[in-house]
């Protein structure tokens, strides 16, 4: 059977960097084709070529066997190719209906808004997409925004192929299973689906084929009918490099613990970006050199709490103290001097200058400045960067790479490494393993344990309950506009924490 889309020897170069080299890949109707590989393997670049965002440096693209002489997103959509990007293409001030209308109108379709509203409701019901056509996008959580992007593709009658780039990275654990079931439903309807993911359990659950990329090259393709295992996938991704994924929670010495930063909140209330109270009367004390987990379904105040602790968001009431000093009204600079560092959930928005190189971004905070004749000595700074073990352990890309060209995973590596090498006393880490491959997730976890042993406390924000129970000493749960706990991980179960995440105070009834 002729594939809907076939790529032959696709190559993409950015200057001296070869992101993809002579890759062959195809998609048939009614199949889920997973694309796996470590961060920086070239997965997103390949998919962006298939959708026409990037023009191949070399190679050919075929639709229904016909060679495409011209290729861009407009032509791709005309030929039935749709893509849901990691960073959504939505207008926050517009409603769901207006965003869908804008997408279809730009594709040349004449739309009746009343009929469109009916179609949105019909498809939402069919695939359990929880969106209201008349709700503004800024009011939606990330999972719901993803549903809007999916609606845009489904409502285009030309669509035959869907490309999903790390779709579950923005979903809470309880949403992932529903999403995978939805993908299976799309397959049963005859859509061809490319699924980029690092999560091997998702691949094992739904993929008919798996293509593994490593360092921009095609390694192998597994077929479900031939059978494949988790170990086969890991070995293909990592090149048979032996990795011990076991972790042992360390203890901090009394000397290091004495020098640690102790944090406490009393009666803290915080507003969100829309001036609505999102957290009320939050009180907890963080032990010295502990890893304190923050659990909660997306949108329950995790980002706002992290920003308030770091000084990027004003407290509406309450007291925030560090080593018994009231720092409620102090600025970010003061908290940095105290030893606070933060890895945010959206590095490109909050942590990074996109037009700067990795080295220049590291020089902003992290690296010690080195001057020569009054100017920054960039050669010495580059050498300093290479001496840090975290850069090697986390496999941060080359210092000259421009931050704005990095994949989401490589950005995460860079910002996490920068926070660690800046010698923190308290690290606020929001979703530090999001979008990372299995080896890098292990490296991040190992680094957090090493910091704990050195007396560094960590506030670890995650929606992955298994990660929180693996890494944390205690877990605080955000739900129903307040905080519950903290709960010692040795005295509770993942099911109990999950129930509090979903039901808040009613979980104890």
Briefly say what this structure is.
This protein is α/β, with parallel strands linked by helices and 509 residues long.
Give the SSE map.
Layout: E1 5-14, E2 17-27, E3 32-36, H1 43-51, E4 58-63, E5 66-67, H2 73-78, E6 81-84, H3 96-106, H4 113-127, H5 142-154, E7 161-165, H6 173-188, E8 192-196, H7 200-206, E9 209-214, E10 217-223, H8 230-238, H9 254-258, E11 263-271, E12 277-286, E13 291-295, H10 302-310, E14 315-322, E15 325-326, H11 332-338, E16 340-343, H12 347-350, H13 358-364, E17 371-372, E18 375-376, H14 378-387, H15 389-393, H16 408-421, E19 426-430, H17 438-453, E20 457-461, H18 465-471, E21 474-479, E22 482-488, H19 494-503
Parallel strand pairs: 3-8, 3-9, 6-7, 7-8, 13-20, 13-21, 16-19, 19-20
Antiparallel strand pairs: 1-2, 1-4, 4-5, 9-10, 11-12, 11-14, 14-15, 17-18, 21-22
Helix pairs in contact: 3-5
Account of the 3D structure:
With 509 residues, the chain is of the alpha/beta class. Strand 11 and strand 12 (277-286) form a beta hairpin. Helix 3 (96-106) runs parallel beside helix 5 (142-154). It is globular and about 70 Å long. The model has no long low-confidence stretch (mean pLDDT 86).
């Amino acid at each position: 059977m002729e594939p809907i889309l076939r790529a032959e020897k696709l190559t993409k170069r950015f200057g001296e960097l070869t992101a993809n080299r002579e890759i062959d890949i195809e998609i048939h109707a009614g199949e889920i084709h997973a694309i796996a590989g470590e961060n920086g393997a070239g997965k997103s670049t390949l998919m962006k070529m298939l959708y026409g965002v990037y023009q191949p440096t070399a190679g050919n693209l075929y639709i229904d066997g016909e060679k495409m002489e011209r290729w861009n997103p407009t032509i791709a959509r005309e030929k039935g190719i749709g893509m849901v990007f990691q960073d959504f293409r939505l207008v926050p001030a517009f409603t769901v209906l207006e965003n869908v209308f804008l997408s279809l109108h730009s594709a040349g379709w004449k739309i009746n808004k009343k009929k469109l509203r009916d179609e949105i409701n019909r498809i939402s019901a069919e695939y359990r997409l929880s969106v209201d056509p008349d709700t503004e996008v800024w009011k939606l959580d990330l999972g719901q925004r993803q549903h809007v992007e999916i609606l845009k593709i489904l409502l285009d009658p030309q669509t035959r192929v869907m490309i999903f780039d790390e779709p579950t990275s923005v979903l809470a654990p309880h949403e992932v299973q529903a999403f995978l079931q939805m993908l299976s439903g799309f397959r049963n309807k005859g859509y061809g689906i490319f699924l980029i993911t690092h999560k091997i359990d998702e691949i094992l659950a739904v993929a008919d084929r798996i293509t593994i990329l490593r360092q921009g090259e095609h390694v192998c393709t597994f077929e479900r009918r031939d059978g494949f295992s988790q170990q086969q996938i890991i070995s293909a991704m990592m090149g048979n490099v032996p990795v011990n994924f076991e972790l042992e929670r360390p203890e901090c010495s009394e000397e290091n613990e004495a020098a640690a930063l102790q944090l406490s909140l009393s009666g803290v209330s915080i507003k969100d970006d829309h001036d609505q109270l999102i957290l009320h009367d939050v009180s907890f004390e963080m032990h010295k050199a502990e890893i304190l987990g923050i659990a909660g379904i997306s949108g329950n105040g995790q980002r706002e709490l992290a920003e308030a602790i770091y000084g990027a968001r004003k407290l509406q009431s309450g007291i925030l103290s560090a080593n018994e000093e009231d720092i409620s009204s102090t600025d970010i600079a003061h908290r940095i001097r105290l030893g606070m560092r933060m890895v945010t959930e959206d590095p490109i928005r909050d942590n990074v200058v996109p037009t700067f190189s990795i080295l220049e971004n590291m020089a902003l905070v992290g690296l010690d400045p080195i001057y020569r004749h009054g100017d920054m000595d960039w050669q010495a700074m580059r050498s300093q960067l290479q001496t840090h073990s975290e850069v090697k352990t986390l496999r941060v890309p080359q210092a000259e790479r421009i931050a704005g060209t990095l994949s989401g995973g490589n950005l995460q590596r860079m910002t996490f490494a920068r926070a660690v090498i800046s010698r923190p006393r308290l690290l606020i880490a929001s979703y530090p393993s999001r979008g990372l491959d299995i080896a890098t997730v292990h490296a991040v976890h190992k680094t957090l344990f090493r910091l704990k042993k050195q007396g560094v406390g960590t506030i670890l924000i995650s929606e992955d309950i298994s990660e929180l129970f693996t890494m944390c000493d205690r877990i605080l749960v955000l739900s129903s506009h307040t905080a519950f706990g903290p709960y010692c991980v040795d005295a509770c179960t993942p099911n109990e924490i999950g129930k509090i995440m979903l039901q808040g105070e009613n979980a104890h009834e």
